[in-house]
Amino acid sequence: MPIEKTDTLVVGAGQAGVAMSEHLSNCGVPHIVLERSRIAERWRSERWDSLVANGPAWHDRFPGLEFSDVDPDAFASKERVADYFVEYAKKINAPIRCGVEVKSVSKNEGRKGFTVETSDGTFEANSVVAATGPFQRPVIPPVVPENADVLQMHSSAYRNPDQLPEGAVLVVGAGSSGVQIADELLQSGKRVYLSVGPHDRPPRAYRGRDFVWWLGVLGKWDAAALDPGTEHVTISVSGADGGRTVDFRRLAHQGMTLVGLTKSYENGVVTFQSDLADNISLGDENYLSVLDEADAYIARNGLDLPEEPEARAIATDPACVTNPLLELDLAEAGVTTILWATGFAVDYSWLKVDAFDEGGKPNHQRGISTEPGIYFLGLPWQSRRGSSFIWGVWHDAKFVADHIATQRKYLAYSSAEERQLENA
Questions:
Q1: Residues 6+ away with beta carbon under 8 Å from 351
Q2: What is the spatial distance between Cα 247 and Cα 241, in angstroms, rounded to a whole number?
Q3: Please, what's the largest Cα pairwise distance for the chain?
Q4: Which residues pair with 105 in a beta bridge?
Q5: Residue-wise pLDDT tens for the chain (424 aa)?
């Protein structure tokens, strides 16, 4: 098959790839977007059935298109979010080719650009953008052996409670995914144990404004880097059931058993750290600090937003917090499933270039890698806190596209002498 050539090849047609295509087109950069499945496939097939966006529709979108059939303050379903990106791709006439898997990208020797091997033949491009996002390889910590007498499942494989066998469930990880899945399982009638580690617990809304609005006006979306020591702190927030603040005490009072960070496993017994009360308390501190900053902002700017004193009410600690369970005999407790909501790792094994550190993470500055011509998009904290969110990736894509366009201008430059020779 003949080699197909383009200036820029974008790998992945999720929110990052679609945003990248828009900005490349605006910059006049010829490009192709390759997607191994369908546009925004992970929203459809790697998320649970009841998932909704964690931000309201007015916020979790690109600037050029609103959700036509979702109330601005509501939370779009996962299928509707995927459909939104399909609509957006059509709106901008994005040159996306679905069903094409990228096998490898290698740097050309002695000439510019890269050779890209795919399931649909070979491509050559001057630049390659890895827009595959942060959710590439599910991570299950090596705590419980694979041959243990219990079903182990990552949150990316979970769909609904009917999928699980009879019996109780241990959910490990209390970020947005873990707490929503644990709550759904509890409401379905299952006995649920939830392993809670360090977390931030922002208010879903406060004084008439959603927390995404507060993060915006308080400048928190624009934070350039994680605070030291917070690398393993997750965010517990949910748009489920119309959106409400995550409250671990409420879940416990409804029958869920909270436990600390999962530590080890031996002979059918899982052990937990004795850090549950501390983790809950630090989550409260984060929650209250947002309320304090919001109140100060309202007073400073003279805003007429209704007071909400009840938001500061903290329920009493349930017994599972004051007297935490440190060991759980799975068989004795009837636990038949461990559901790991423990996040993802990147997988760039197909990208065979010098653009990674010893741990396999991209070496880059705002998506511009240490390997000229290779770019990344959709990474957490790529340029700021909001980078991996829908609206944030759109702005990061503009920066990357502008850089690609600038490099094209440099490469197109020729001196007066060179132009004379070309015209001779």
A1: 104, 105, 128, 130, 374
A2: 14
A3: 88
A4: 116, 351
A5: 789 999 999 999 999 999 999 999 999 999 999 999 999 999 999 999 999 999 999 999 999 999 999 999 999 999 999 999 999 999 999 999 999 999 999 999 999 999 999 999 999 999 999 999 888 899 999 999 999 999 999 999 999 999 999 999 999 999 999 999 999 999 999 999 999 999 999 999 999 999 999 999 999 999 988 888 776 688 999 999 999 999 999 999 999 999 999 999 999 999 999 999 999 999 999 999 999 999 999 999 999 999 999 999 999 999 999 999 999 999 999 999 999 999 998 899 999 999 999 988 999 999 999 999 999 999 999 999 999 899 999 999 999 999 999 999 999 888 778 777 777 6
Within 306-386, strands assigned E span 327-329, 335-340, 344-345, 351-352, 364-365, 368-369, 374-376
Please give the Cα distance from 424 to 223 (Å, whole number). Answer: 55
- Distance separating alpha carbons of residues 59 and 66, to the nearest angstrom: 9
Identify the CA nearest to 179 among candidates 248, 244, 233, 243. Answer: 248
Q: Is 410 exposed, middle or buried (0-12, 13-18, 19+ CB in 10 A)?
A: exposed
Return the ∠ at Cα 303 (arms to 76 and 314), rounded to 5°: 65
Write out the two tokens for 410: 């440099």
CB 272 within 8 A of CB 261: yes
Distance CA 99, CA 339 (A): 30
In angstroms, rounded to a whole number, what is the distance separating the alpha carbons of residues 266 and 250? 31
**What is the three-state SS of 22-74?**
HHHHHCCCCEEEEECCCCCHHHHHCCCCCCECCCCCCCCCCCCCCCCCCCCCC
Single out the residue of 29, 30, 38 nearest to residue 89, CA to CA: 38
Place of tokens 């990228």: 102
Specify the pTM.
0.94
> Cα 278 vs. chain centroid, distance in angstroms?
26
